[in-house]
Amino acid sequence: MSTPRPPYRVVQWATGAIGKTTLRAVLAHPDLELVGLYVYSERKAGQDAGTIARGEPTGVIGTRDREEILALDADVVLHTARIGIPYESQDEDIIALLESGKNVITTLGHHYPRAHGADREDRFRQAAERGGATLFGAGINPGFVLERLALTATGMCLRVDEISVREVVDASTMPDPAFVFDVMGMGRDPGAPELLTGAFAQLYDTLFAEAIHYAIDRLGLTLERIEPDHQLFAAVRRLELASGVIEPGQVAGTNWRWHAVVAGRRFLTLSINWIMDAQLPGFEDRHLWTISITGVPGVEIAIDVCDPPDQPPGRRTHAEQYATAGPVIAAIPFVVQAPPGIFELPTLLPWQPRLTGIQP
Fold it and tell me: pLDDT tens across 141-176, in order?
């Protein structure tokens, strides 16, 4: 079988905030051809992809029929469905797509399935091999900031003592109530047990464990355990948001935080902060991502993304959504040309603890 060459035949799976962004990127790219569109809402079913993207007609019509998508001849599916509880809720769709012979790039985790054991990794790998396809988990965080940027930055160090990655996202403009209140956990009682130790925590523990395992494995270290260290922040005032209302005392911010323990001490900390109010204490001087490496030398990297200057009038796509979509589009030729299985990007020249006399 010859290696596919552009134009790559693309299916867009879901058209939420990220899905619309990748859909527009596909329609604008000369090397990509949209051949299918899967939608979840009845309102979008039967609509032209161009209408959903607020552009010109394409002739590709949105469908809610999974079998119709599985029957298509396509090189790759951009799987951007909304993450849900539990983390495994999208497994069956991803496996079916792989078995149908389509490469899958998903923004719903699946960056490093081996983090959850050989059985889970084998399930996806075997499905990919049955279909002669490849699975790749893409996105910005997880998927890029720790795994690409932070690990590459360690290559400047002769010694690394600690790594910290902190994300702070102002989510107050997110319009989807189901996502804000049912997936992010906003607007709830801070004392509710399901937040710090229940279904919400389990979702994010599972998702971000893949990034942590990947980072530790790429450095050649041995991960002893991951210590959850989550926090909730209560609203200090009434918040009237695009997604709904959060009253004072209800959850208006979350910090999903984990410490990776190596050689008996906390070596890597990943801190994911989502806030619905920029006035919450502790977030006055924030960047979207901050990478801190303690070592020889120490490294500090602050990262922000900005809306494009030529943003079309009325377009509600934010810089963070473009930044999530970018790695998805960039990965297409690599994933399509990769051998069947689970695709993992190499890390560029990270710190080598064995060469510096520090053993895992």
Answer: 999 999 999 999 999 999 999 999 999 999 998 888
Neighbours of 55 (CB within 10 A): 15
DSSP 45-58: TT-BHHHHTTSS--
Looking at residue 204, which CATH number applies to its domain? 3.30.360
Query: Alpha-carbon distance 261 to 122, whole Å?
Result: 26
Burial of 295 (0-12, 13-18, 19+ CB in 10 A): middle
Range of the structural domain that residue 109 is part of: 8-137+324-342
Total of domains in the chain: 2
Residue 139, SS3 per DSSP = coil
Beta bridge partners of 8: 32
178 and 109 co-located in one domain: no
One domain, residues 27 and 60:
yes
**CA separation for the pair 352, 246 (Å, rounded):** 47
- Mind listing the pLDDT tens digit for each residue in 282-304? 888 889 999 999 999 999 999 99
**What single-letter amino acid sits at 268?**
L
Measured CA to CA, the distance from residue 105 to residue 328 in angstroms comes to 7
Helices within the chain (DSSP H only): 17-28, 49-52, 66-70, 91-99, 118-131, 151-153, 177, 193-196, 199-218, 319-337
SS3 track for 243-286:
CEEECCCCEEEEEEEEEEEECCEEEEEEEEEEECCCCCCCCCCC
Report pTM.
0.93
Q: How far apart are CA 110 and CA 31, in angstroms?
A: 26
CB 166 within 8 A of CB 150: no
